[in-house]
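Bug #77: duplicate submission created two jobs. Keeping one. Sequence:
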Amino acid sequence: MLNIIKSIFFGIVEGITEWLPISSTGHMILFNEFVKLDVRPAFMDMYLVVIQLGAILAVVVLFWNKLFPFHFKGGFKTDHDKMTMWGKIIVASLPAAIIGIPFDDTFTALFYNYWTVAIMLILFGVLFIVVENHRADQKPVVNRISGITYRAALFIGFFQLIAAVFPGTSRSGATILAALIIGISRTTAAEFTFFLAIPAMFGGSLIKLIKFGGFASGELAILLVGMVVSFLVSVWAIKFLMRYIKTHDFKVFGWYRIALGIIVLGYFLILG
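Kept job's structure:
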């Protein structure tokens, strides 16, 4: 029962941090230092990835009308604009799929540590502030996903690869930052990031589940509770972010990342 309660808190942390550009991995690592699940290491490794399925289902539910490209009214039809959008999502997913997936275990062994998390939190926090200051007086050149070119999608995809390699970067943070750099509006950048997460997170979760040996007693319930909570909290977090960026920039998240990076670094240095 205690593990179920802890999983609720993990779901809350995942649901908030997955969509705000502040690194869910960084928060999960720090949170796990204080609220440890009493489970096998193999389950915990899988849990921290697969719990994201709840978060990604929130995107599917909230943006279903923008995502689903097929219509059955009056016969089977496809929406050309939505199919094109999915083409761009696939292109943006290629760098992480080609490089990130085959070398996932290697990257985890090399970079899954507090030094990397802290450095990437601070580095991308600084980049958010610099980019937002640079574009303060500039109008975005792309205001809807249909205006994103395949070349721009690939550029964003390479930033997603950076997030896949270096924990603490934040997948949403990296891809939003890439979109801002090339002149995409904040709301469009956020939406494309949400949609791009669908193949990335489903794929990552599927790989972890395939590698996972099997559930011991009570583990499936722990995972399902975390996923359900992350789904519910993600619905709120996504709606909050979309409202917030209509009238604000991302600098506050940059400052938050810097502060969190310093806390992570200081905490583990003191313990070490």
